[in-house]
């Protein structure tokens, strides 16, 4: 696609028929915007496990992400094993903090669910949206989190797999 500029189109629509939202919707919207604005990458963790209910909330947040044609081409692998954390830290030169984490969620693209043809690569955006949902949910729950890239590095993908 030489000489073409790619743009992201985000379509928005009002959910209420009025010009202004009611006070409750404005408050909720402010909370969402505050959560987005305060999310940071956290690389130091307490030696305290993440509760099972919180893990479920994080996974549900990831699954609620938008995806092309609603294919949801992702799998989430929950890691709580110390040996696996050490292996993940070694697999990615930028994921050393994984060795100290109490939890990792590996977001994997499921190529069997990916679209065909030119749309196949939408899985990357879909998994990125799921990852961001998990990060925002973690922030809202008072958990520290960081996103470390693996794809498109074939070496890192193989090592993480």
Could you state the order of secondary-structure elements as H and E? Answer: HHEHEHH
Could you name the CATH class? Alpha Beta
Strand elements, count: 2
Oligomer state of the chains in this structure:
single chain
What's the pLDDT, averaged over the residues?
88
Shape: globular
Task: Compute the number of helices.
Answer: 5
- CATH homologous superfamily (4th level) name: NADH Oxidase
Query: What's the arrangement of strands in the largest beta sheet?
Result: 1-2
Write down the Rg.
18 Å
- Tell me what the CATH architecture is: 3-Layer(aba) Sandwich
Helix content: 25-40%
Provide the domain count: 1
- Distance from N terminus to C terminus (CA atoms, Å) equals 31 Å
Return the CATH topology.
NADH Oxidase
Q: What class would the helix/strand composition place it in?
A: mainly alpha
